[in-house]
Amino acid sequence: MSLRESELAPVPRRRGPLKPLTRLSIERIIGRSVAVFSVVFGAQAVPFAIGQQDELKQPWGAVLAILLFGGLLLTAVAGFSARLVSTITAIVPIMFVVALITWPLSVSDPAVVQPAPPWLWFICNIALAAAVVAFSPQVTAVYLVVVPAVYAVVRTTPSGGGADVLHAVLDAVFTAILGAAILILAELLRRASDGADAAQAGAVARYAEAVRQHATEVERTTVDSIVHDGVLTAMLSAARAFTARDRTLAVGMAEASMNRLASAAATPLAGSGAVPLTLVRDRLEKTIERLALDAAITPPDDAGDIELSGEVAQSLGDAAVQALVNSRQHAGDGVNRWVSVTGDNGVAVIRVGDDGAGFDPSVRSERLGVRVSILERVAASGGRAEIESAPGEGTIITLRWPHEIPAARDTELDD
């Protein structure tokens, strides 16, 4: 016995949104890192700043300390709160340059060699790190060159401790290298996050396009089904209406066709939320009575308590009706026709069968009644349609939702 079925892999359920490495998250990490450095190294520099106040002109020495340490405190607050980070963080590198340039004029006697380097040395790296956050990479690169060079010059003056040139240059190079490492690391993280953002945007765009194409395909299948079920089938039935029962079927289908064309759907289930399988069964029973299809249908209790979405219920119901109409048109006279609506371990199963003429499903057929109104319609809703038939042995059409292929049931249709 040949078997022909149409399947559509189910659309995977969307999980919770991923949290990619975005530019915003990287900027927050960098800002909070600078905030931590501001607190740790700022606290380390406080004793040295207090110890050198006697050697500085007042109140300028105190003003410099207040402005710089106040800037560090504001930078820490901004970094941890993630608010106005780049604006507030700019205070520290700007004030550091001002303090560094004016340092020779800040000491009480510029001609006297100071016993220790300026306390600014202890927050130099913080100023460079803050520049990475506050300024563009180009401006920061210039800052990393200029500030260490200015510090080296100040360090060789008496007010800077009168260090020899080699010692001052080594201090400046060390500071520049550390600042460059911070800048390079920050830029690498930023570029990686930009790449992640671009990849995410591309994935979202591809997903949207896939959804659009899927919606277009579903709409095409729906339109084809409406045209076939409503118009072509009614016309074919009318052309073959040689008996009173055939005329009753043709008239009923024509009325349903006009109603559906007028309202785009005749009392649709789609969009009505959760629909119990028993309601699908009841509508099939009413359709059988209205179109005089002479088919026995299972009791309502067999349907169980399975619930479907409105769209799925509409698709399964319409496909089952089309299977009944096909049976009425092609199975022959005097056949037994039946419909079963059951729930099988959470799977909605609708079977439409007859003991009529049957056909060979292995032979390719372009009839829309099977291909569009049954196979494609059920597949588009995420289900599966199976056709079991052979010449002279009747036909059984099985509709399942959701789509699944249990290993234990692979031979079900061969029993």
Question: Can you put this structure into words, describing what you see?
Answer:
The protein is of the alpha+beta class. The protein folds into 2 domains: 23-201; 267-414, 2-Layer Sandwich (Heat Shock Protein 90). The chain contains 11 helices and 8 strands. The chain has helices at residues 23-51, 60-81, 85-89, 91-106, 124-134, 137-156, 165-239, 244-263, 277-291, 310-330, 368-380, and strands at 3-7, 275-276, 296-297, 307-308, 337-344, 347-354, 384-389, 395-401. The strands form 2 sheets. The chain has a 6-stranded mixed beta sheet with strand order 1-7-8-6-5-3, covered by helices on one side. Strands 2-4 form a two-stranded antiparallel sheet. β5 and β6 form a beta hairpin. α4 (91-106) packs parallel to α6 (137-156), α7 runs antiparallel to α8 and α7 (165-239) packs antiparallel against α11. The termini are close together. Residues 1-19, 263-268 and 405-415 have low confidence and may be disordered. This is Signal transduction histidine kinase. The chain crosses the membrane at residues 29-50, 62-82, 88-107, 119-145, 165-186. It holds the Pfam family HATPase_c. Residues 318-404 form the Histidine kinase/HSP90-like ATPase domain.
